[in-house]
C-alpha cells in the first residue's frame, strides 16, 4: 500500500443518496474522523474551528445577557439522577454507567452526564437563600454522553459538545421570559451567523423535554426536506426546584420555591450547516462563521513574483477578512477542489497574467461566479462579496424552506405533500396526543412545533376533523 | 434555619493550618463548591472565569505557534489503552470504567480518558502518510478523569480540565525542540500572566510520564514551602508511534516512524495561584489574569450624586481596566471583605467627601496601601498600579522561592534544611534510582527536576557520596 496521499475523490451526489452525500462531505471536508468506540467521533481541526466560531459568538451573547459560565462534574450518582421522576424516566435508557474506579467496585453506580439539571439543582439548593440571590443565570460548555443505538456524525453521536444554560428565577413569568430570550439568541446564532432560517415555536407535550413544563424550539429544514431541531429552551416550572429544595426567602420573609429554565445548543448545528448549505461539490460555510473566508491560490507559482505577490495580498487582506494561502506544491486544480470541498466562501487566484493586468480573480463558493477584480478595489470587493454570500445563503435557504412548506387540510393532502414536496407541513391540530400519535404512525412525520406566529389555515384538526386548537408544523425529522 | 446569607466568615490563618487555609480560601472566595461524587468539584463562576482567562492566553500562544485544536472522544476501549505497555501500567490503577450503556452490558469495557495519547496515536496512524503531512501539531481542551484516592480542589481531583498537546515530527530533534518550545510557553503563562516564577528542567526517569523517553517540567514553590509541578512536556520518542504504526514515506520514498510529543497544563494552575499569592485575607489574583481588576465601592451611596459618580467612573475606566461596581445595599465593610477575599487587585472607593475633593481612594490588594488619587489622573494611575501589582507579586514570589532554597551537600544538611527552611533543596545526585528512592523514603522529598541551568554545588552525590552527575532540585510536593 502506498502511503502517499490520494487526490480528493468525488463525492456521492445528494440527489442519488443524501445520507451517503452527508457522510462523504463530513469525511472529505476533513470535519470528522471515526474513532474506536462505535458512535464516537473525532472532531478534526476544520470541524472544531467551526465549532469554536459558533461558541465564541454564542458565548459573547450569553455573557452580554448577564449569564456566568460554570463547570459541573462529569459524573452523577445514580441516586441524584433519580430525584426528579420524569427526568430519570426520560434519560435512564440512554446513559453510560461507570461501575468501577481503579480496582474498586463502586457501591453506587455513576452516570456520565447526559445533561446536568440534577447537578445544577443540588448546587442551587446550596447557594440560593434570599430573593437577593435571584436570578441565578448559569451556563456550562461541556461534553455529554447519550447511549444512542444508531449514530451519525454531528447529528446523533454517543458523545457531543454543547452548552447548557440553567437558571433560577423568583417568578414563573421571569423564568418564561428567560426561555424566550434565550430562544431568540439561538435564532440569532442560526439566522445571523449560520445563515439558517428557523421556525420559532413550542413543542407539544409529547415532544417536550423530560421534566419540563414546556419546551420552546427552533426548527430548520434541511436540503432533503427533513427537519432538524436546532435549539431548545425549557421552562422547568418548580418541578426540579421542589425535588431539590431550591427555596428562597422573599421580600416579605416568606419561603418560596424558585422557577427554573434550561436551554442548550449542540455540535448538531454543524450537521445543520452541512445539510442546509452544502452542495454536490461539498461544504459551503457562511462567511460570518467561516474559519477561513478567503483562500489564495497562486497560479504558476514557480514564476518570478507570483508567490511574493500572493503573500503580499494575504497581508493586504488581513484587515478585512480571515485569509489564508496555499503555497504548497500541489496543482491549482487540486487546490480548487480541496477548498470547494471545504466550502471556503471566496477563492482568490493570482498568476503572472493577473499581475500584468494588476488584478486578481475571485470565485464565489455559493454561486461559482468568477470575476476579475482590480487590485485597488480588492478590499472593498472582498468585503462586499462576503456580505453578499452571507445574505445569499440565508435567502436561498429561506426560499427553499418556503418552497418546501405545504398546507394540508386533510390526511390525504398531508400524505401527498410528504411524497410530492417533502418538507414542512402546516396543518391544524385539535391538541390530542391520539391525533399526534396517529399522524406519526401513519406518516413518520412528527409535530415539530406550534409556531408562535399562528395562522388559521382551517377550522378542523387535520387528523380527526374536530375543532382545531393550533397550527402545527409537521415534518420527518433528524 | 434562616435562609438569609451570612457575613463572610474569618478564614483560618495559613500559619496555623495551611491546608485548612487553602480549603477556606477556595470555598470563601467562591472558586469551588463540592458535588455529590466524592472528589469531584463544581468550578464556580469566579473560579471558571480565572480558568477562562488562563485558557484564552494559552490558546492564543498555542495557535500562534502553528497548532490546531481538535476534539477526541471521552471514552477509550480497554484494548486501545493496552496498546502501549508502559502507558497502561501507569494509568490502569487510576481510571474509571464504563461497563454498561443504557440497558446493554458492554462486551468490552471503556475507560474515561485519563489522557489521550492512544486516541491521538490511532488517529495519526490514519491521517499521516507522507513527509508532507508533517509536522502534525494538534491540541485539545478537555476534561479528564483519574480515580484519585485523596483529593483536594484544583490540586488533585477525580475530574479536571486541561489542555493536552500531541504532535508528530519527522525527526527526534524536531520533536525535542517542540517539547522545549511548549515548556517555554508554559513558563510564560506562569511567569508573565500568573506571576508565578518557575524552575525549568527535566524529570528523572522515575518521575517521568508513563511512556515517555523524557519529561520536561516547570516547578513552582508554594507559600508553605511545598513544590507544585505547574506544567509538563513529554518527548515520547517512537514508542507510541511503533505501537500504533504511525509511519510516513520520507523524501527518498522510504518508510519512517514519526517522533512524538505530548504536553499539558491543568486547572491545577488555579491551586498554584492560590498558594503562591494568597494571604490571610484570602485570594490575591494577578491583574493580568484577573476577571475583575478594579472593584468600585460607593461610600454613603444613598447620598445624592454618589451612585451617579460611581457609574460614571466605571464608564471612564472601561478602556484601561476590567472594572465592576458593587452598588448593592450591603455595607461597605462587607464589600471590602468580600473583594479582598476574592483578591481583586484594586479597590476604588468614592464617597461624598471624595467628590468634594475631586478624588477617589484606591487600595492595593497586594500591599494594602491606600491612596487618594485626583480624578484627572485616574486612568494613568490605575494602569500604573495594575502593572506595579503584577510586578510586585512576581518579585515577592521569586524572593520567597530564593529565600526558601537551600544548598545541601550531605543528608544531614538535607534533613536540617527540610525542617528549618522548608522549600527547594539544591543537591547533587549520582543518577541512581537507589539514591533517589532512599531520599524519598527518608525525607518524603522527591526529585522535582534536573534544572536546565546546572550549577556544581559539590562533586559528590548528596546521598551515596559517589561522583555526582547532576544538580537536582528536591522538595516535598503536592
Ligand atoms: Zn385531532
Ligand atoms: Zn548516589
From TrEMBL, chains A, B:
Chief location of this protein within or outside the cell? cytoplasm
Q: What is its EC number?
A: 6.1.1.15
Q: Which reaction does it catalyse?
A: tRNA(Pro) + L-proline + ATP = L-prolyl-tRNA(Pro) + AMP + diphosphate
Q: Which domain of life is it from?
A: Bacteria
One example of the protein's molecular function in GO is: proline-tRNA ligase activity
**Protein role:** Catalyzes the attachment of proline to tRNA(Pro) in a two-step reaction: proline is first activated by ATP to form Pro-AMP and then transferred to the acceptor end of tRNA(Pro).
Name the UniProt record assigns to this protein: Proline--tRNA ligase
Species this chain originates from: Pullulanibacillus pueri
Gene (UniProt): proS2
